[in-house]
Write a structure and sequence with these properties.
With 145 residues, the chain is of the alpha+beta class. The chain is built from four helices and eight strands; from the N terminus they run E-E-E-H-E-E-E-E-E-H-H-H. Strand 1 and strand 2 form a beta hairpin. The relative contact order is 0.20. It binds zinc ion (ZN) (2 copies).
Amino acid sequence: MKCPRCQGELITEQYKGIEVDRCAKCKGMWLDYGELDQLEDIVLDEDEIKGSLMFRSMRGDLLCPKCQRPMQFFNYRAYDLELDFCDQGHGVWLDAGEEKRVLELMARRIKDLKRKESAEAEWAGFVRKLKSKSFSKKVKGLFGK
Ligand SMILES: [Zn+2]
Ligand SMILES: [Zn+2]
């Protein structure tokens, strides 16, 4: 697959046990929906998801690496994160800068909460959540598909 941002090659790698496709050039990350299906489906907190996803009717400027259709984007409020996703259910795209920003936010939050987990572990959990089937269903529901 080609990177929707820079057309670089997407390389499959393991990130804390999660399979992701990372662009070798811009370091953005593509997450296929539902790859974890056989392993587990994350039980999502309905209220958390409802409160944190914000519909954006605008289309993004990226094309899905799987079907080449324009992706839409939505805002994940908890981290003020803008995520591009394919409304055909292929997956979600994260720019490298966004990933870094979320990691920093998580590090700060964990420090405040004086928790033992690392920001990386927290991030891995978040990535896992993004990939889960329940999450993709929620996003689809949000867009009325
Ligand atoms: Zn790229
Ligand atoms: Zn697609």
